[in-house]
Every structure is written in structure tokens, then in C-alpha cells.
């Protein structure tokens, strides 16, 4: 007979206590999403100079294999894609004064599309990039000019000067703050002296490059350049005072050198004048001696002629003497013959 106690079956339930990773990125509020997304809109690539006159083609074109950070974020999940598209719509609607976009337009478009699909708010005729690639993002003026210090967005010159008012060219920064190119752009140069003086390296300044009239120009923000100069030189007032004193000393040395050079040139000029006067006297003396030499040569010629005449007379006398000498010898022979005949007789 079975027991009154009800038989129970023990079932072993295996519970996985491994903590599951939480998706904090998609669970945060939309307001925080939009705050983060807002920092991704403006991009900057300083190594690529931007043209300021000729409008460039659309920067964010999939056909040119150029993608924006919004594309990478939207491709992560449907939630983030929806947040990106919502932010783009809100941006166009919030700035409708310059974008001329109607906020109700998106509702009409979504009503036509299915629930699973969503209109791309980034590209197309009504997309954010379709408008931003052809208009200034600050005032809505049409144009393809890029901001110097944020070349990922279009910006007219007026808004560029207003948003980044204190810009300074690299040559002007080098001249005004006594900075070298390797100090302004330390990431583009390898310099051992910088590592010795600044083991942690120098801060990288925000900069931008643009081409105008086939000339590449690099721009910085003046407050950042001033901070770098303070880090490099110390107290700028004291450094500038030393620089002016050094320049004044160099100027005085240069003036003294110029004065010494001028005195040397004056002395050489006086010596040249004296040399020319002496040369003139020497030339006059030479011509005088040449005249005397000519006269002496005339006397010598007359003496030679006289000698030749005397020599001729002497030669004639010698001829007479030779002839007379021959006759005298014959006469002496005849006398000797007469004497010999007398003695014999």
C-alpha cells in the first residue's frame, strides 16, 4: 500500500549567474546621445589643406569613399542610427532660419514610408550633408569655402573671422614669439633638444592649412601660441625685453661695423688717390727719361757715325801704309844689292 506521503521529484535547475554585459551606450537617455553626437558633426583634418576659393565637391559622399563619423555611428545599431537621424532632423529644424527646412516635412515623409524604414536625414535633397556641403553652417550663405581651423565644415570668411577671431600665420608667430617651426609643429619634427627640455613633449596646437594663389599657409590660434611661448620662454615680458636688448646690441654692433667699413673704404679711397698721383708723377718721369734716352740715342748715333768715318780714314791710311811699305821693302833690297856689288868689285 502506498505511503501517504506524496512523492516529490527533485529537479536540478542550473542557473547561469554570469553577469551579462550591459549595453550602456544604447540605454542612456536621448539627450545624452544628442550631446555626444553634436561633437561629431564638425571634423578637422589639418594635414589636408583646404581651398578657400574654389568650392570643393561634397565632402561626405559614399561614391567617393568618403564617410563621416555619423555613418560609422549609425551603422552600429538601429538605436544609434535612429538617434543620429533624429539629431540631424532636430539640427535642421532648430536652425530653419538658415536651413529653410520645414520640420513637418519629415512627418509627411515618414507617413509614406513603412514602419521599419526611415528616411535618411543625412543625405539627399533634404539631408543634413546635402545642405551643409553647399552652405555656411553658421549663416547659411551659399558657398564651398571651408573653415581654416575646422575644414570639415563649410564656413564663409565673415563667420570664420567671427568664430575664430584671433588667428595668426606661422611665419608671424615665429617672428613675433621667437618660436621655431619644430616648436609650433612638434609632431612633424624630431628634435632631441625638445625632449631634453620638455621630456613630456610640447602640446600640439590647433592648426589649419589652406592654399591660396598656389601658396600653402598654416594658421594657429594666437592664445594657444602665446601659451606655448610662455611654456618655452618663461615670462614673455622679460623675454621680449631681453630680445629687444639683444637686438639693440646687435644693431649697435652692425652700425659700428658699418662705420668701420666706411672708414676703411675712405682710407682705401685716399690711398687710391695718392697712388694715382704717384702713378701720374711716375708716368711723367718715365716720359721725361724717355725723352732723355731719345736724346742720348741721337748722340750715340752721331758718335757711331763719327767712329765709322774715323774707321774709314784709318782703313785708308793702312792701305797707304801697306802700299808704301811694299815700295820701301823693294828699295831696301835694291840698296842691299848695290852695296853687295860694290863690296864684290
Query: What's the SSE pattern?
Result: HHEHHHHHEEHEHHHEEHH
Portion of residues in helices?
55-70%
Look at the structure and give the mean pLDDT. 79
Low-confidence stretches: 1-9, 52-65, 111-116
Coiled coil: 242-269
Keywords: Coiled coil
Protein name: F-box domain-containing protein
Keywords:
345 residues, alpha+beta, 4-stranded mixed β-sheet, two-stranded antiparallel ribbon, 13 helices, 6 strands, 59% helix, rod-shaped, disordered N terminus, coiled coil, F-box domain-containing protein
Molecular structure report:
Residues 242-269 form a coiled coil. By secondary structure, this protein is of the alpha+beta class. Among the domains are: 24-164, no CATH class; 166-234, no CATH class. It is built from 13 helices and 6 strands. The protein has helices at residues 24-27, 30-41, 69-74, 78-94, 96-99, 103-112, 128-132, 157-163, 170-177, 181-184, 192-197, 222-233, 236-344; strands spanning 50-51, 146-147, 150-154, 167-169, 207-212, 215-221. Strand 5 and strand 6 form a beta hairpin. The longest helix has 109 residues, at 236-344. The protein is rod-shaped and about 195 Å long. The N and C termini lie far apart (233 Å). Residues 1-9, 52-65 and 111-116 have low confidence and may be disordered.
Amino acid at each position: 500500500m502506498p505511503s501517504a506521503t506524496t512523492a516529490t521529484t527533485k529537479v536540478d535547475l542550473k542557473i547561469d549567474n554570469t553577469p551579462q554585459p550591459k549595453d550602456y551606450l544604447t540605454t542612456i537617455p536621448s539627450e545624452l546621445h544628442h550631446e555626444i553626437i553634436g561633437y561629431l558633426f564638425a571634423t578637422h583634418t589639418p594635414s589636408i589643406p583646404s581651398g578657400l576659393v574654389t568650392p570643393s565637391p561634397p565632402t561626405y559622399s559614399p561614391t567617393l569613399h568618403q564617410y563621416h563619423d555619423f555613418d560609422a555611428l549609425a551603422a552600429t545599431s538601429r538605436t544609434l542610427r535612429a538617434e543620429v537621424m533624429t539629431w540631424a532632423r532636430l539640427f535642421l529644424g532648430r536652425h530653419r532660419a538658415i536651413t529653410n527646412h520645414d520640420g513637418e516635412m519629415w512627418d509627411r515623409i515618414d507617413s509614406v514610408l513603412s514602419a521599419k524604414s526611415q528616411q535618411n536625414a543625412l543625405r539627399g535633397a533634404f539631408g543634413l550633408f546635402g545642405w551643409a556641403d553647399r552652405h555656411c553652417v553658421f549663416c547659411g550663405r551659399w558657398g564651398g569655402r571651408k573653415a581654416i581651423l575646422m575644414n570639415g565644415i563649410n564656413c564663409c570668411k565673415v563667420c570664420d573671422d567671427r568664430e575664430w577671431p584671433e588667428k595668426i600665420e606661422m611665419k608671424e608667430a615665429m617672428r613675433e614669439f621667437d618660436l621655431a617651426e619644430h616648436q609650433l609643429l612638434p609632431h612633424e619634427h624630431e628634435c632631441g633638444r625638445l625632449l631634453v627640455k620638455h621630456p613630456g613633449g610640447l602640446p600640439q596646437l590647433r592648426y589649419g592649412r589652406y592654399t591660396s594663389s598656389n601658396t600653402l599657409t598654416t594658421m594657429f590660434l594666437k592664445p594657444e601660441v602665446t601659451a606655448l611661448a610662455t611654456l618655452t620662454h618663461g615670462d614673455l615680458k622679460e623675454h621680449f625685453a631681453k630680445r629687444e636688448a639683444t637686438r639693440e646690441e646687435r644693431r649697435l654692433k652692425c652700425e659700428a661695423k658699418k662705420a668701420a667699413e666706411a672708414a676703411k673704404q675712405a682710407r682705401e679711397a685716399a690711398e687710391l688717390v695718392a697712388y694715382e698721383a704717384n702713378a701720374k708723377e711716375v708716368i711723367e718721369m718715365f716720359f721725361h727719361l724717355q725723352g732723355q734716352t731719345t736724346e742720348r740715342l741721337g748722340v750715340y748715333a752721331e758718335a757711331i757715325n763719327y767712329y765709322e768715318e774715323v774707321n774709314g780714314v784709318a782703313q785708308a791710311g793702312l792701305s797707304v801704309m801697306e802700299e808704301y811699305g811694299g815700295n820701301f821693302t823693294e828699295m831696301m833690297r835694291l840698296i842691299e844689292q848695290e852695296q853687295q856689288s860694290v863690296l864684290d868689285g
